[in-house]
């Protein structure tokens, strides 16, 4: 923290700057008898790291730490960091995975049930979230396999999305703006999807969300937009795009270890693990299909918009 301090003479200031708590070179002293100097040391602001836990207290104040805090701290876990601050770029906020699945019956609170699977909606409708993104075909395969240590028996994987410093590395993909895995704009895409939910015009206030896959319905996006926790509001959460959701595939084992640790203390506040199977993204493939990530095979592929797919919400914080 910067702070100002007055000194009546240079000797006092010189004694301060070379004291046990602060040393600085290249100090310029003025000729005034009395003047103001400041301590230029600014402690670094903590930033979220991968697998940090986002907590909220009873007043809605948010904080994060890598530790699983005891219940006596009075904090509730609400998210798990799947992409640290700056992971996707210099000005990109951290991405947090919801600790509950989205659900059309309880859209505001979500559910711990792994069977809660909802439609993306808008089958047969192009809602313009494609942005010239295409699936990555490596070696002529029909799937895009993500590199992850636990995935076995697959070939032609996408090279690692992480460099030696554990940062996002998409340069290996060449013309990066062509590939679905580079899509990190889930918030904007979810907003586009929500704008089409005219068949259920009162989705923001209805007790439940209509689970319909047809045009002008967007149940998954509506559930994400209705979902909130202590310290977050409806509209803060959204469906992650492929680039955001792919992290849960690459880091599935580490995420599950952290979820297990959280559940040891907070067994009713958090899902138990990332299951094998498909997870929803907000990246559109075409009028009838969407992209999803699969935690069984570690691949990105397309599926019909009227498929029932489990959904986790994403938060930027």
Q: What is this entry, summarized?
A:
This protein is of the alpha+beta class and 317 residues long.
Report on the structure:
This protein has 5 helices and 15 strands. The chain has helices at residues 10-17, 186-194, 219-226, 242-250, 252-265, and strands spanning 3-7, 35-39, 53-57, 62-65, 75-83, 95-101, 117-118, 144-146, 157-158, 237-239, 278-284, 289-294, 299-304, 309-310, 312-316. The protein has 2 domains: 3-39, no CATH class; 102-316, no CATH class. Helix content is 15%, strand content 22%. It starts with a strand and ends with a strand. The model is unreliable at 1-31, 131-143 and 153-159 (pLDDT under 50).
Provide key terms for this protein:
disordered N terminus; single chain; 5-stranded mixed beta sheet; 6-stranded antiparallel beta sheet; globular; alpha+beta; 15 strands; 5 helices; 317 residues
Question: What is the radius of gyration?
Answer: 24 Å
Averaging pLDDT over every residue, what do you get? 79
Shape: globular
Number of strands: 15
Poorly predicted ranges (pLDDT <50, ≥5 residues)?
1-31, 131-143, 153-159
Proportion in β-strands: 15-25%
Distance between the termini: 22 Å
Quickly count the domains. Answer: 2
Which percent range fits the helix content? 10-25%
Give me the side-by-side strand order of the main sheet.
Answer: 4-3-5-6-15-10
What is the count of helical runs? 5
Question: Main sheet?
Answer: 6 strands, antiparallel
Structural class: alpha+beta
Give the SSE string.
Answer: EHEEEEEEEEHHEHHEEEEE
